[in-house]
Amino acid sequence: MKIALLSGGGGGARFARGLAEVLPAGDLTVIGKVGDDVEILGLHVSPDLDSLLYTLAGLIDDERGWGRAGETWGALGAAGEWGGEDWFRVGDLDLGLHVVRSRRLRDGAALSEVTAELAARKSLATTLLPATDDRLRTLVETEAGTFPFQEWYVGRGHRDEAIGVSYEGAERASPAPGVVAALEEAEAILLAPSNPYLSLGPILAVDAIRAAIESRRARSVAVSPLVGGKAVSGPLDRMLRRMAGGTTPDFVAQGYKGLIDALVIDETDAPAEAGVELVVTRTLMSDRDAERRLAETVLEVACG
Amino acid sequence: MKIALLSGGGGGARFARGLAEVLPAGDLTVIGKVGDDVEILGLHVSPDLDSLLYTLAGLIDDERGWGRAGETWGALGAAGEWGGEDWFRVGDLDLGLHVVRSRRLRDGAALSEVTAELAARKSLATTLLPATDDRLRTLVETEAGTFPFQEWYVGRGHRDEAIGVSYEGAERASPAPGVVAALEEAEAILLAPSNPYLSLGPILAVDAIRAAIESRRARSVAVSPLVGGKAVSGPLDRMLRRMAGGTTPDFVAQGYKGLIDALVIDETDAPAEAGVELVVTRTLMSDRDAERRLAETVLEVACG
C-alpha cells in the first residue's frame, strides 16, 4: 500500500511518524518542503527535512517541538562571540548535520541525494524526498516589507501580519527525482495537517507536483490543520482569516481545490460544509497514540 | 619596544602569552604557522592561529593544552552519526569559530584579514599574523608514506617515525601583509620554544620571511624547546635525533643557522656549546609565573 504524503512543519512530521508506525515498512514516501531552507553561518539548513528526519529517526525533542533531544548550544554562542550571525537557533547536534549536508552540497550532490544518504544512516523505512532540488524560497509579504520565511518567522518573531505569500524560484523548480513517480504510483495521496500557505504551499507551487496531484488516479485526502477554527501552533488562523476570508474548514478546502477528494477535520470544527467529502475525527496529535489513531483514520478515508 | 615572535604549537602560544603580559600593550606581533591548517567537515581549521587566539584571549583549556575551556563535543558526534569525518577533535565552541572563519574565507577574505577581525573581537593588544595567506602545508615523510601534518599527528597518532618534513606550497607562498614589516621594524626577533621542524619550519620555509630574518638589524633570540634533551611534549626529541643527529642545544642551533644570535636553553641542558651565544635559564613554563619569567629573561637577552 504505497502512500505519498506532502508534509511541512512540526504537525506534518508528527503525522508522518504516525503513518510510518501504522504502515508496513517501505510503504511511505514523504515529500517535504524546502521553502524555509536558509543559509546560516555559511551552512545550508533545511529545517523541514531535518524535522522529518529527526522525528522519523526518534531524535526529535518532542517537548520543544523542533530540533534534537539533548541539544546543547555552544557553537552558536561561540559563533556570536566571533561576529557570526546567531539569530537562528542552531544547536550543536543540529550543526553536526548541517556541516555534513553543506559539504555534500558544495561537492555537487543534490539535496535529494544527501537527504537519501542521511535517511540511510538512520535506516529509515520511510522514503524522504525534498519537493525539489532547485532553489525555492517562501517569501512572506507584510506591511513592513517582504521577507524570506525564516527572517519573518524567526528573525522578526512573525510579529508582522502576513498579507501574502509567494514562492521564489517555484516557476523554474522541477520536482526532485522520485517525487512525481511517488505521486503517480501512490494508492493514496495525503496532505498533512500543515499550514496551506507556509507548509504545503511551497510544495504545491512546483507545477509538475501540482499537476501530478490534479491528474491523480488515487484518492487524495488532506487533514485540516485547524482545531476549533484555530491553529495548533503558528500564525495559521490569522493568515486564513486575512488571506482566505475565514477559519472554517471550507476555507482550507478551497485552498486545496482540485487537489483533494476528502478533508479530515477535527470534531470541534464540525458541522461544516466544504465542497468535498468531510470526515470528522479527533485530529489533535496530543501524544504518540493520537498520532497513530489519526494516521489510521486518514488511511481508512483514503484507501477504504 | 616592538617585538616580533615566530610561534607554533602550545609552547609557542604560552610563550606569547608570557610576552604579552610583560610587554606594553601593542608591542608584540606574533607570526603563527599555517602548516597544520586542515579542512575538516568542509570547514577551514587553523589550529595554531586558534591556539594563539584562545591563549591570548584567555579562552584556552590550559589543562588539556589545546582548545577552549568548557568545551563540549555534540556537533562532532552528530557529524559522525550522519557520515561526516570525526577523526579530528573539533569541539562545539571551537566549531563556532571555524564556521565564522570559513565563511569569511569563502567570501574571499584573506586569512590575515579574518585573523585580525577575530583578534579585534577579543580586543587583543597583540597583533596576530599568519605567516602567509597562501596555502602552505607541512608534510611528514615516514616509512609508511608521506602525510599531511594532521593526518600524521592526529589521524595516525604520530605512530610513524618522521624521517623528513617538507612544506608544500612554501616556494610559492608570500608572507602575509605585515609580516616582513614586523620583522624589519622589530627591536628584537624571537623564536618561540617550538619544534623547529613542525612549528617554526613552516614559517621559515617562506623565503621572504627567512630572508627578512637573515638580513635583520635587530637581535634574534630563540628559546630551545628541549628540557634535558627531551621534548616537553610531542615527538621533537625523536625527530631531532633522527633528522639532526642529536638532542643537545647545538642541534637546535644548527637548525636556526644564520637566523639567531643567541639561544636560550634550559639549565638541565647546560653546559653546552652551540656556535651562538647561549643563555641558561629555566625554560619550562610550568605555570603563568614561569611564562612571564621566561619572557622577561628572553627580552633581556634580546634587548639588553
Textual characterization of the structure:
Two copies of one chain form a homodimer. The first copy, chain A, has about 300 residues and is of the alpha/beta class. Chain A has a single domain (about 5-304), classed as Rossmann fold (3-Layer(aba) Sandwich), CATH 3.40.50. Helices cover about 40% and strands about 20% of the residues of chain A. The first copy, chain A, has helices at about 10-20, 45-55, 75-80, 90-105, 110-120, 150-155, 180-185, 195-205, 205-215, 235-245, 250-255, 290-304, and strands at about 5, 30, 40, 45, 125-130, 135-140, 145-150, 160-170, 190, 220-225, 225, 230, 260-265, 275-280. A seven-stranded parallel β-sheet of chain A has the order 5-2-1-9-10-13-14, with helices on both faces. A three-stranded antiparallel β-sheet of chain A has the order 7-6-8. A two-stranded antiparallel ribbon of chain A has the order 3-4. In chain A, helix 1 (about 10-20) packs parallel to helix 2, helix 1 (about 10-20) packs across helix 12 and helix 7 (about 180-185) runs parallel beside helix 9 (about 205-215). The mean pLDDT of chain A is about 95. At the A-B interface, helix 3, helix 4 and helix 5 of A face helix 3, helix 4 and helix 5 of B.
By CATH, the superfamily of chain A comes out as CofD-like domains
Shape of chain A: globular
**Overall average pLDDT of chain A:** 96
Please tell me the total number of domains of chain A: 1
Based on the structure given, which CATH architecture of chain A is correct? 3-Layer(aba) Sandwich
Q: Give start-end ranges of low-pLDDT stretches of chain A.
A: none
Strand arrangement in the largest pleated sheet of chain A:
5-2-1-9-10-13-14
Question: How big a fraction of the residues of chain A is strand?
Answer: 15-25%
Helix-strand makeup class of chain A? alpha/beta
Distance between the termini of chain A: 12 Å
What is the β-strand count of chain A? 14
Order of helices and strands of chain A: EHEEEHHHHEEEHEHEHHEEEHHEEH
Q: Could you tell me which chain pair has the largest interface and how many residues each side has?
A: A-B, 33 and 33 residues
Helix content of chain A: 25-40%
